[in-house]
Specification:
seven-stranded mixed beta sheet; 2 domains; 13% strand; alpha+beta
C-alpha cells in the first residue's frame, strides 16, 4: 500500500471513530433525558414581593447582628418557598443563584438521583445499598456517600488515569449532572464525593485543582426539596422514603453542635418553643461553610422550605436560626 493511501485510510478511520463516539454521546444523552424525565412534573414557583420583603429583612437583620463575626452580604444566600398552597407556590431569594460549595447538602441530590435510578430499574436495592442511603442522609456519613456515588455513576476511586480512561471516568461521574440537567436544574455541579480530610488519586485529578468542585445554589436546593415534599421527583412512595430519611426530631438537647436535628434551623424552633412543629432537613458544614436546607410545618398552618447557605462564618451557629426565627414569626402575615 502506498504511503499516501495508508495516510488517507488512517485519517478515514480516525474520522469514522470520532463520528461514532459523538453519535454514541448524543444517543446516551438523549436516552438519559427521556428516561429521567419520565413522569416528571416540575414545580411552578411564583415570585412574591411580600415574601421577598420578609426574606430580605431576615437576612439583613442577620448581617447586621453578626457583622462583628465577619458576616457580609456576599457570605450568605437564602431561598424561601411558601408551601401553604400547593397550587400557588410563592418564592423569594437573596443571592439565590450564587454558586456555593454545598458541603453535605449535596447528599440530598444524590439521594434523589438514586431514587430515580431505583425507580427506572437501573440499580437494584440491596440491604447494603439501603444501609448506605440511610447513613448518607441520617448521619451524613461521607463514606456512605462515596459508596452511593460509585453506585450512581458506575465508577470507583483509585490511581490517576490517562487519556481515554480518564475521559470515560469523567463521563460516568457526570451521570448525576446529566440527570438534573435533564430536569432543567441550572448553575449546579454534583459530581464529586465528600471527604472529612482530602481526596486522592483520580478523585483529586477529577477535581481539576478545585475547578470541578461540587456547587449548588440555594434556589436549586430549595426547588429540589420542594419537589420531594410535593412528590414531584419520583413516586409518592419514594418521596415518602426520602422524607422519612430527612425527618428530624429536634426535641431535647444534643451535645453535638453539628447535629442536624438540633444545631441548625431547629435552634429557632426550640427557641420559639414550637414543640408541635415538624422538621425535615439536610445540613452541611465544613471549616468554611455552614448550610441548612429545611422544610417546616407548624401547628398554626405554616408550611415552607427555607434554604440558607453561609460562608466564612462556619463557627457561628446562630446565623441560620436567626433568619429562620424571623420567617417563623412573620410568614403567617404574608399572603
Amino acid at each position: 500500500m502506498k504511503k499516501s493511501t495508508a495516510i488517507f485510510f488512517g485519517a478515514l478511520i480516525v474520522c469514522f471513530a470520532f463520528i461514532t463516539i459523538k453519535a454514541q454521546e448524543k444517543v446516551s444523552a438523549k436516552s438519559d433525558k427521556s428516561a429521567m424525565q419520565k413522569g416528571y412534573q416540575p414545580i411552578v414557583l411564583n415570585n412574591s414581593s411580600a415574601l421577598k420583603m420578609l426574606l430580605d429583612g431576615a437576612v439583613n437583620d442577620a448581617i447586621e447582628k453578626f457583622s462583628a463575626k465577619n458576616l457580609k452580604p456576599e457570605f450568605i444566600a437564602a431561598t424561601l418557598i411558601d408551601m401553604r398552597d400547593e397550587n400557588n407556590l410563592k418564592a423569594a431569594s437573596v443571592r439565590g443563584e450564587a454558586k456555593i460549595y454545598p458541603a453535605s447538602v449535596v447528599k440530598m441530590f444524590y439521594m434523589a438521583a438514586l431514587q430515580r435510578q431505583l425507580e427506572d430499574g437501573k440499580v437494584k436495592l440491596t440491604p447494603e445499598l439501603e444501609r448506605g442511603l440511610k447513613d448518607m442522609i441520617i448521619s451524613s456519613s461521607n463514606d456512605a456517600t462515596n459508596y452511593i456515588v460509585d453506585v450512581l455513576t458506575d465508577t470507583a476511586s483509585g490511581a490517576e488515569l490517562d487519556g481515554k480512561k480518564f475521559k470515560l471516568y469523567g463521563e460516568k461521574r457526570n451521570t448525576v449532572n446529566r440527570y438534573f440537567a435533564s430536569l432543567d436544574f441550572a448553575n449546579i455541579n454534583v459530581n464529586q464525593k465528600t471527604y472529612c480530610e482530602d481526596a486522592y488519586g483520580r478523585e483529586q485529578q477529577f477535581r481539576d485543582g478545585g475547578k470541578n468542585r461540587n456547587m449548588l445554589t440555594t434556589n436549586a436546593t430549595a426547588r429540589l426539596l420542594a419537589e420531594i415534599v410535593t412528590d414531584r421527583q419520583v413516586t409518592t412512595e419514594r418521596s415518602t422514603q426520602m422524607m422519612n430519611l430527612m425527618r428530624r426530631d429536634f426535641g431535647g438537647k444534643s451535645a453535638d453542635a453539628d447535629d442536624q436535628a438540633h444545631g441548625f434551623t431547629a435552634i429557632a424552633l426550640n427557641r420559639l418553643n414550637l414543640s408541635g412543629a415538624r422538621l425535615w432537613s439536610k445540613a452541611g458544614w465544613t471549616s468554611k461553610t455552614r448550610h441548612d436546607a429545611a422544610y417546616i410545618e407548624t401547628p398554626d398552618g405554616l408550611k415552607f422550605v427555607l434554604v440558607i447557605f453561609t460562608e466564612n462564618t462556619a463557627t457561628e451557629r446562630e446565623i441560620i436560626p436567626t433568619v429562620a426565627e424571623k420567617i417563623l414569626k412573620n410568614l403567617g402575615d404574608v399572603r
